[in-house]
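Reviewer 2 asked us to include a model.

Predict the structure of this chain.
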Amino acid sequence: MNKLYKSLVYGLQVSLSVLDTTELVNDAIKTHNLDETSAELLGGFLTACAYMAGCLKSDRGAVSITVKSGDGSATVSVSGDKDGHIRGYVEGAEQGICGGVMTVIKEDGFFRPFNGACELKSSSVSENLMQYFHMSEQIETAVAIGVKMDKGRCVAAGGVVMQLLPHTSEENMDKAENAMQNFVNVADVIEELGADGIMEKYFSGETEKSGVYLSFPEYKCNCSRKKIEGVLMPLGKTELLKIVKEEGCVSVHCHYCNTDYRFDIHDILALFCAR
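Predicted model (structure tokens):
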């Protein structure tokens, strides 16, 4: 089961998140029939998105991460919401992604969406995420995210993320830095202990005062036929019937869940008659 633990540690001065997203990654592999390289890449960003979605405050909150390679040949896109519904897709990344830009859009339901971006300096999801937080949000963040594959299946995925809160003491900075050394090969630790075991072994004595928040992210797309109908309606009846005449139907593909929605002439007529 996917899990996200959140707590404050080290004198309530450091924000801690521990994730197990193994099932999430396997659901993505099944949905998109991914090769191992693409699965590791998408799985890393799905885990990052699950972490960011878990930090949203508003019920209407949402976050998306988009990565485009420098030559435009590869794309990774993931998104998530306050309910922990995480989804994503990858295209053209069978050899990974080197160079390019990562863009993050956060909508927390209060103000205008926050947009941040940074150049990709590494093939590591963890390093790119740390760079993003440092450059775009000016928050010192330690990130260890990993995905471990075996014969086309994800056997372990997840991560540990620590963020320094304002006025963190040097002593607690050192504690956080030392703790992160345990997660250099974080996928191996998750395979051995899971998120529960990590919290128990490394942080059980640090979370008593702040408590622990536990959520269960899942791979779930928010699209539906009804939502697609809402997207088609503004095109108008005449334009949609023209598409049906030329192509046989109106077809809409959702990249996130790999679902095709098809509307024939009867569907189009019923769509407008119902309103």
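The helical segments are 22-32, 36-54, 125-136, 170-180, 186-203, 225-232, 237-247, 265-273. The CA atoms of residues 39 and 74 lie 14 Å apart. We have added this to the supplementary material.
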